[in-house]
Amino acid sequence: MSADQPAAAPTGPPEGPPVCPRHPDRVSYVRCQRCGRPTCPECQRQAAVGVQCVDCVAEAARAAPANRTVFGGTVRAGRPVVTIGIIAACVVSFLLQQVDPTWTLRWGFWPAGGELEPWRFLTVAFLHSPTGVIHIVFNMLALWMVGPFLEQALGRARFAALYGLSAVAGSVGVLLLASPLEDSWVTLTVGASGAVFGLFGAVFVVMRRMRRDVRSIAVVIGLNIVIGFVVPNIAWQAHLGGLVAGAALAAAFAYAPKERRGAVAVGATVLLGLLLVLLAVGKYALV
């Protein structure tokens, strides 16, 4: 005959109150609606029903498709950081031109110097005439007028590529139309005008693609082209080079098939860069 045995007492330590996984020192009886883990007030995020923890919110954000513009750029709220960054770099460079007499000569472009110091093809776009503020004011005003629109429409990366390659194309334009037998071969050029003209050309293309009225930007481009030929000491060659390159690259961005926008953007950027290099190398090989 057997007697009933008492139930065995639990051997493990008693369970404590639930704590937040991110902050084990904080007791929380509120649980995430997605994963069920406790979440303290600092880690709680209000959801449609109840609350979620910050980890689940971040995971959902990564999984959600990004909002895209009509040209595939990521829709971003807030300031146009690339445009502001370019303007800030130009302003800082202009101030350095005032305090350092060698700054302009160190980073400006002239055809004879570009062969051995090719970075000048780009750095020239961050310099302006050190003897007055009109040059930089007009260029920065133009950049602020069109930069945020293009940055939002195309996305930050493509906008930065557009500005940089337009700047280089402006210098290549100066190089191609210069002669080693003339003063133009050793004439220093400065300014963001080539890059800005590239943005003008891009605005024209993008607005045409959006079926919007392009008469205003066409007038701006036409007037600035005329000014380049009428007013002395303006590198109209840089304007022309930047305009053509900016319009061409923007056309690749704007007219790329939706399912191949990324590949077309990278390919067009690389091809334009290679073309500019080949044009510069070819010109130097002929002199």
Can you give the mean pLDDT?
A: 89
Largest beta-sheet characterization:
2 strands, antiparallel
According to DSSP, the number of beta strands is 2
Beta-strand percentage range:
under 5%
**What is the CATH C level class of the largest domain, in words?**
Mainly Alpha
Helix content: 55-70%
Biased composition (Pro residues): 11-20
Biased composition (Low complexity): 1-10
Family: Belongs to the peptidase S54 family.
InterPro entries: Peptidase_S54_rhomboid_dom, Rhomboid-like_sf, Rhomboid_protease_S54
Explain this structure to me?
The protein has 11 helices and 2 strands. Strands 1-2 form a two-stranded antiparallel sheet. It has helices spanning 54-63, 81-99, 103-107, 111-114, 120-123, 134-154, 156-176, 193-209, 215-230, 236-255, 261-286; strands spanning 44-46, 51-53. It folds into 2 domains: 18-64, no CATH class; 82-286, Rhomboid-like fold, CATH 1.20.1540. Helix 2 (81-99) runs antiparallel to helix 6, helix 7 (156-176) crosses helix 8 and helix 8 packs parallel to helix 10. Strand 1 and strand 2 (51-53) form a beta hairpin. 57% of the residues lie in helices and 2% in strands. The chain is elongated.
